[in-house]
Amino acid sequence: MPSETVSIATPEPLLDVRDITVSFDGFKAITNLSLSVPKGSLRVLIGPNGAGKSTLLDTIIGKVRPDTGEVRFAGQVISRLPEHRIAGLGICRKFQAPGVLEGLSVRENLLLTARRHKGVLGILKAPTAAEHSRADELLRLTGLTERAAVPAALLAHGEKQWLEIGMVVAADPQLLLLDEPTAGMTAQETAQTAELIHTLAGRHTVLVIDHDMHFVELLNAPITVLHQGQVFREGDLETLRADPDVMEIYLGRPKEAAHAQA
Amino acid sequence: MKRSTTAVITVLIALAFAPLYLGAYPLTLLGRVLALSIAAIGVSVVWGRAGILSLGQGLFFGLGGYALAMHLKLVATPRGELPDFMLYNGVEKLPWFWVPFASAPFTLFMVLLLPAAVAGLVAWLMFRRRITGVYVSIITQALLLAFVTWLNGSQGLTSGTNGITDYQTFLGINLRGPAVAHGLYWVTLLFVALALGGTAALLRTPFGAILTAIRDNENRTRFLGFNPAAFKIAAFMLGGLLAGVSGALYTLHLGTISPAMIGTAFSIELVVWVALGGRASLIGAAAGLVLGQLAKDRISSAAPDAWLYVMGALFVLVVLVMPQGVAGLIQNRRTPRPTPAPQNPVTREVSDAV
C-alpha cells in the first residue's frame, strides 16, 4: 500500500500537540506550543520552574483544556474528550505527587489499574488469572511483593513512587507520561528507575519530565527544553549543555547583562 | 473477616428466634427498627464507601413507603369508590398516577424501581456536573424538603400531613391478625439478611474497591480510565433502592406513612446512627441504627426532653473522638495498624454538613 511507504518515510507521531495555548485567568502558561512524539520513542522534557511542563501533561490528559490548538493521539483529536476516555485510549500519567489509591492495598491498586474493562458492569467480575499474574509480576518489578497487602496510605514516600510507576505500567498504556518519577528517590533507586524506563520504551511511548540532570543523563534520550510555555530547544544532552542560552534560562543571565536588560 | 461473618450469622439466627423469647411490644419495636436498618445499610454504601453524604434519604424511603401505601389504600377502598381522604377533599376521579397501583405486582416492582430510578436521576444530575461534598448534602436535603412540602400541600392526592393510613390487607393477608406480627417480623429479617449479604458480596467485587478509590482520590481514579460519575450513580441508586425497600417494610409495620415520618429529622437521624455505628462497615451501620433506635425508645419514653440532647452529644462524640464509629474502634483494636480510611475528610464533611 502506498500509504505504508509514506508512513515509513515520515512516521505518524503517536502524540501530536499542535499549536496549543493554555491560559489561567489571563496568564499564559503555554503559548503556541507544538510537540510531536513518535511511536515507541522515549522523550525527556526539561525546563525551569514555570516553563509549562506539568501544564503540558495536564493538557494531554484532559485535566486542563487548551484555549486554542489541539492534541492528537494516534491521529485522533483528544483535547475535547472526557478524561476517563482519554485514559481509556491508552494514555496514563504518573503524577508528581504520588497518586496512589490510599484506601486500597498495594495489590488492589495494581489489580484495578490492570483491568481492561473499566465500566460499571465490567467491574463486577472478579479479576482474571491474567490480571492476577500481571499484578504479581509488577509487585516483583517494583520490589513491593512483601508489601502487597499493606494499604497504600501506609507506604513510605519512595514506595508510593514505585507503586505508582507499577500502576501506570499495569495499565499498559500506549503513552506513558512520567512527571518527576524520581523525586525523593535515592541515587540507586534513580538508576533503577532509569533502567526500568529503558525497558518500557519501545513497547510504550514514554514522555518523562525531570529536573535531575543525572537521571536525564541516564535516560540518554532526545530532550525538549521548555521555557515560558514554549519549546525553547530540542536536542541531545551534550548539545544542550554546550548551549549558552539553555544554561542561561536555567541559571539566569550574567549579572551585568541582567542589569542591562532591566 | 471470617470471624465477623460468623458473628453476624449468629446474631441473625438469634434474631430469627426472637418471637420465642420477646414479648409483643419489644418484638414489634425490633421489627420496625430492623426495617429501618436496611436504609442504614444503604447509607453505609453511599456515604461510608462512596463518600457521598446524602441528607435526603427520606425521599427514597418515602417513595418506597408511599408506593406500597397507595396500593394498600386502594385495596382497602371498596371497588368503584375513591379513597376516603380523596372524598373529603372533593377529588372526583382517581388521579392517573394512582391507577396502576391497584395491581400488587406493579406496586412491588415500583417499590424497587421508583426509589432507584429517582436516586439515579438525582445522582446523574449531580455527579455529571461533578458536584461533591457539602453541596450534595444540601441538594439532597433540599429535594427531600421539596418532596415533603409537595406531599403536605397535595391533600387530595396524597392525604397531606395525615399521610396514607387506615388499611388492613396486603396480598389478601390481614395485617392486623395476631399471627401476622411474627410473619412480618421474619419477612423483615429476611430482607435485612438479603440486604446485608447482597451488599457485602457486591462490595467484595472490584466495584467496592473502585468506590473506595473514588472516595479517596476521585481524580486519580478518573485518570486511570474509570468514570467516577458512573460508579457514584450506581452506588447512589443502590442506596436509594435499599431506602425504598426499608420504607415499604416500615409502612407495613406501622400501618401508615406520612410526611413527618420521612422528613429532615428522619434523614439526619439515619446518618447519625450510621456515623455512630461506623459508616464504613455495613454491619456497624445497621447495628448503630438498631441499637440507636432502641435506645431512643427507652430514653424518650423515660425523659422525652432529654432525648435530643443525648443524640446531639452522641453525634459530637462520634465526630470528635471516633470518626469511624464503634465499628472503627473494634477494627482498630483487632488490627493494631491505623485504619486507611480518610479520617480528616470525614470529620470535615460531617461538621460541614450539619
Q: Whole-number radius of gyration of chain A?
A: 20 Å
As residue ranges, the low-confidence spans of chain B are 338-354
What class would the helix/strand composition of chain B place it in? mainly alpha
Mean residue pLDDT of chain B = 89
Helical stretch tally of chain B: 18
- CATH hierarchy, class of chain A: Alpha Beta
Task: Name the helicity range of chain A.
Answer: 25-40%
Provide the CATH architecture of chain A. Answer: 3-Layer(aba) Sandwich
How many domains, in number, for the residues of chain A? 1
List the uncertain runs of chain A: 1-9, 256-262
How does this structure look, described?
- The complex is a heterodimer of chains A (262) and B (354).
- With 262 residues, chain A is α/β, with parallel strands linked by helices.
- Chain A has a single domain (2-100, 155-261), classed as P-loop containing nucleotide triphosphate hydrolases (Rossmann fold, 3-Layer(aba) Sandwich), CATH 3.40.50.300.
- Helix content of chain A is 38%, strand content 24%.
- Chain A has eleven helices and ten strands.
- Chain A has a six-stranded mixed β-sheet with strand order 6-7-8-3-9-10, sandwiched between helices. Chain A has a four-stranded antiparallel β-sheet with strand order 2-1-4-5, with helices on one face.
- The relative contact order of chain A is 0.16.
- Residues 1-9 and 256-262 of chain A have low confidence and may be disordered.
- Chain B is mostly helical and 354 residues long.
- Chain B is 75% helix and 2% strand.
- In chain B, the strands form two sheets. Chain B has a two-stranded antiparallel sheet. Chain B has a two-stranded antiparallel sheet with strand order 2-3.
- Chain B is globular.
- Chain A binds chain B through residues 61, 63, 82-84, 87-88, 92-93, 95, 99-104, 108, 111-113, 115, 118-120, 123-127, 151-154, 167, 171, and chain B through 202, 205-207, 209-210, 212-213, 215-217, 219-228, 230-231, 234, 337-338, 340-342.
